[in-house]
Amino acid sequence: MILVPSNVYLGIYRLGFLVCVIAVSWLAFGSPPGGMAATVSDKVLHGVAFVVLAYLLAGALPFHSFWKVVFPSLLAYGFFIELVQWQLSHRDFSLLDFLADTIGVFLYWVCHKPIWKMSKFFLSEKGLR
Questions:
Q1: Residue 1: what pLDDT?
Q2: Based on C-alpha coordinates, what's the Rg of the chain?
Q3: Which residues contact 15 (CB under 8 A, 6 or more apart)?
């Protein structure tokens, strides 16, 4: 177990969220990868990406309501991705992708207690003990 100060703890989640938003945006707006579509469903990738984004944003904003801040922020980001893709010649707008994003955020919420128990096993905030 690693003990870290509160500000570092929040910084890890905020930096992780920023890195993931950059990575997801790069993947969403770039040319579609050729070989990945055959092995993993695009909808599964959307769902997994938004589970991870929800985890990181919930960790980055621990004193904010999930339903008032995290959920709407990630849905807005998912819809923003689809709007940008609608304008790109090599991408398409897809409500099914947006639905997969929404399911990913909701899936995080359903599983958030075991996810946080597991993450607190490895990373514990100094001063909470």
A1: 55
A2: 16
A3: none
